[in-house]
């Protein structure tokens, strides 16, 4: 409903049969960047960036119920219904409590064993949920966060500091956080 909305489309088989399509967003700009299925294949997650203060499905029970700063990350869950296709079920904002210039998402993955969610990105502020180390204080810092599979709590966040603005992604094949140089700053087993 804003200038830019995320969209979700499902095709069948060879992509000639269209099963489902929907927009997702509020009155600002909403850009879907990543998509992932839980291990059962029944819960689809979309992750992206939003400037909308009125995202649908965000409630007081969401992990983060309001936009902070210029942009936040959004997560939305869509559940498979045999009669209706994909049905929107949940949404939340995600990011630091005090971002000066907003949040960026650089990687997203749904764990293949537990369905826990992993987010990697760049933050311009302190106060990421469940941080296990202090905000390094640079202009911007990379982070990796693990959320439980219902996205009701952050299990941990780790800031990754450097001398310049950071960027990080998640290697979806190996299932472990990797920096752009290919080295592993964390453990080799993320679940």
Describe the model.
It is a single chain. This protein is mainly β. The chain contains no helices and 12 strands. The strands form 4 sheets. The chain has a 4-stranded antiparallel beta sheet with strand order 3-4-5-6, with no helix packed on it. The chain has a 4-stranded antiparallel beta sheet with strand order 7-8-9-10, with no helix packed on it. A two-stranded antiparallel ribbon has the order 1-2. It starts with 5 loop residues before the first strand and ends in a 12-residue tail after the last strand.
Poorly predicted sequence stretches spanning 5 or more consecutive residues: 172-191
Going across the biggest sheet, name each strand in turn.
Answer: 3-4-5-6
Amount of helix: under 10%
User: What does the radius of gyration come to?
Assistant: 16 Å
Globular, elongated, flat, extended or rod-shaped: what is the shape? Answer: globular
**Proportion of β residues?**
over 45%
Distance between the termini: 37 Å
Order of helices and strands: EEEEEEEEEEEE
Summarize the biggest pleated sheet.
4 strands, antiparallel
How confident overall, as mean pLDDT? 80
The total of helices stands at 0
**Would you tell me the structural class of the helices and strands?**
mainly beta
Number of DSSP E strands: 12
